[in-house]
Amino acid sequence: MHKGIGVSPGVVVGVAYRVESVLGSGEPQTLDNAARIPEEVARFDRAVEDTTAELETFVQRIALELGTPAADIFKSHLQIVNDPELTARVHAGIEKQRLTAFSALQVVMNAYAAQFARIDQEYFRERITDVRDVMTRIGSHLTRKPGAADNGNGSVDSHPGDEPVILVAHEILPSQAMNLGDLPIAAIVTEIGGSTSHAAILARSRGIPAVSGVENIMNDVVAGDLMVVDGREGHVIVRPDREATAAYRKVQREFFNFKDSLIANRDLPAVSCDGTQVELLANINNLADANAADTVGATGVGLFRTEYLFLTHHDVPGEEEQYEYYRQIVLNSPNKTATIRTLDLGGDKTVPYLGRRNEPNPFMGWRSIRIFFDNPKLLVTQIRAILRAGRHGKVSMLFPMITTVEELRRLNTMVKEAKNNLKREGVPFADDVKTGVMVEVPAAAVCIDALLRETDFISIGSNDLIQYLVAADRDNPKVAHLCEPLSPSIFRVIHMVLEACQRTGTPVTVCGEMAGQARSALVLFGMGLRRFSMSPAFIPQVKALISSVTTAQAERFAHHVLQLSTNEEIRTYLSERLREVSSVLEAIDFA
Ligand code: PEP
Ligand code: MG
């Protein structure tokens, strides 16, 4: 059994599918016999052809779903895969050094990586990500088991047998993460990445069980191995015995049956036993998520992360394009209600066109709103597009990573100026778009009173608030034990912010992942939170949870939790309470 971090709940028994890393450091493999050279060259050429075909299909699909600029990124991948120099270098590796096609590809990839690292201009240096993405696609064609077909996005179109497919990778690249939802992947296991990395968030939003931080799993798994993934406990079993397989298959059936049964509560209101109503909103990353939010019965979108629009572009999307995309998001959001967050890049999400400095601590550095203050035009464009999209529903604008009141003032002024300019230009927009502050830097929590005087609403981003509060990178498995919502410090800080909002009558939402986790949601409800925003997949169970408690009961739990001193005490106490409230929900809660 391997132990990692459960980043998306659920249990799956399935067969392993490896996504090979082409940036490997292992010893290159040579062919045992020179007679195999022509066959190996042909195998590489076939992998290039297959990659080309799949990219062409992929470009068409992305163009339909996300528009032409997003598709352009993958068009450039077509140029890379068909680059004659790439083919010549890999052929030379096979023919002259007698390398296997995969090793020759690795050697060329490592040489490209070194070459790109020497490039001065940031934009061109960053193109290595695209090269790596393409090489990974070719690599996965080369390592595929005969009979299996893969579309190169870390997904499998068909595979031997009827077992679900478990993706095993060192890491999931952004383009692979974008495709998780549409493909028949049953679970994901990675060696790196934490519970709030973008890949984990996307897996959760699609309800795919996932475990990350599983060291050396790639050394233990071969394609086609039977595996068990327990995304709640963070356990991975490779080649389980008969008893374990049978036991986990049973849990898998129960888990998915229960989740399916919960969807039945879609049209019921989210109310506690004694009639306290809460709003359950969805965190979304793209249009597909907006529709998923509607399917599970969210009453609106509490957080639309606009990064994913920018991550799929070659350069900054213009105002018209942003407006059109936000308009679609609003129209497809439940009750046409959406909180659109301004761009939150930096940290784990970077785009080449904004430039990335080599920062020792990217999460503490040039991130989010801080990037915008150095590129105010970008922000003005986004603010205008959001204000314009506001005409199509009930739209709010949310600013991430606010640290000081000065920042908020500057943003409020920019919004005011954008409105004046739109008015002067005669461009229609919604004047009543509310603006809000994300509380995710401890400084903002500490000075919440001052911020509340100058904002319409608050959204607590607990993912970041936790990592900054405990000084532990949210993506680093080594410090994952500190990045834990069930802790005295995080509950105290959130309690303080909620009280300040209640005092001033300011609407407040929690939109970090803890809002969707039963144990922490119970405490948040008891502290008086009435607006929860979470991955759509969690909405049915939080609705079931709220409808299983009374307000007074939850208040008692919250009051008690605030008296406890350690994570362990809190976890034990809440697990017991949750079991009393609903043993089934306790069984599927994670974190
Ligand atoms: C958060 O930090 O809690 C949050 C919701 O934002 P993100 O996960 O996108 O950083
Ligand atoms: Mg955040």
Automatic annotation (TrEMBL):
Enzyme class: transferase
SUPFAM superfamilies named in the record: Enzyme I of the PEP:sugar phosphotransferase system HPr-binding (sub)domain, Phosphoenolpyruvate/pyruvate domain, Phosphohistidine domain
Cofactor(s) listed in the protein's UniProt record: Mg(2+)
A matching Pfam family: PEP-utilizers_C
Subcellular location: Cytoplasm
InterPro entries for the chain: PEP-util_enz_mobile_dom, PEP-utilizing_PTS_enzyme, PEP_util_AS, PEP_util_C, PEP_util_CS, Phosphohistidine_dom_sf, PTS_EI, PTS_EI-like
Start and end residues of each PEP-utilising enzyme C-terminal domain: 265-549
PROSITE patterns according to UniProt: PEP_ENZYMES_2, PEP_ENZYMES_PHOS_SITE
EC number(s) reported in the record: 2.7.3.9
A GO term, aspect molecular function: phosphoenolpyruvate-protein phosphotransferase activity
Domain of life of the native organism: Bacteria
Broad class of where this protein is predominantly found: cytoplasm
Alphabetical UniProt keywords: Cytoplasm, Kinase, Magnesium, Metal-binding, Phosphotransferase system, Sugar transport, Transferase, Transport
Entry keyword annotation includes Transferase: yes
Domain (PEP-utilising enzyme mobile) ranges: 162-234
Residue ranges of domain Phosphotransferase system enzyme I N-terminal in the record: 3-127
Function comment: General (non sugar-specific) component of the phosphoenolpyruvate-dependent sugar phosphotransferase system (sugar PTS). This major carbohydrate active-transport system catalyzes the phosphorylation of incoming sugar substrates concomitantly with their translocation across the cell membrane. Enzyme I transfers the phosphoryl group from phosphoenolpyruvate (PEP) to the phosphoryl carrier protein (HPr).
Family label: Belongs to the PEP-utilizing enzyme family.
Protein name as annotated: Phosphoenolpyruvate-protein phosphotransferase
Gene symbol of the encoding locus: ptsP
